[in-house]
Amino acid sequence: MAKTDYKSVNDYIAAQPKAVQGILQEVRGVIRKALPKAQEVISYQIPAYKVDGAAVVYFSGWKEHYSLYPATKGLVAALKKELAAYEVEKATMRFPLDRPVPKTLIAAIARKRAEEVAAELAKKAKAKKAATKKAKR
Q1: d(C-alpha 28, C-alpha 34), whole Å
Q2: What DSSP string runs through 81-132?
């Protein structure tokens, strides 16, 4: 994984070991289906999905697992039972390469993160509106 100037998710996946590429394509497909309006980008040199300009979810491939980010407190709490079978540490969810891709769980992660991001954006917009209204007084 020496290449670090990926221009697209296709570039990123193509640079991974052959054994991992199919799995990453599956993960990509699940996220794209769960977030059909998301923009697919490279951020921090890994695939990311943005909604309304805000990053929702990222994924990356490794030697023995692939990861999804970020594992927020709210996300982990909401999907605690489903995530119990996987390693969740700090902001990272790790999925072993030798097990089937948990498509339902990954879709739920993407949708939950989209909800969290939408709530954050709405909160910021409300605060900005309140600040503008206050400044006009």
Answers
A1: 10
A2: HHHTTSEEETTEEEEETTS---HHHHHHHHHHHHHHHHHHHHHHHHHHHHHH
pLDDT 10s digits, 8-32: 999 999 999 888 999 999 999 999 9
Query: What's the pTM value of the predicted model, to 2 decimals?
Result: 0.88
The encoded tokens of residue 78 equal: 């909401």
Residue written as token pair 């052959």: 18
Q: Which tokens go with 63?
A: 């030697």
| DSSP 8-state class, residue 88 | E
Type of residue at 137: R
Q: Pick from 28, 22, 25: which is nearest to 40 by CA? A: 28
- Residue written as token pair 């540490």: 89
Tokens of 60: 């990356």
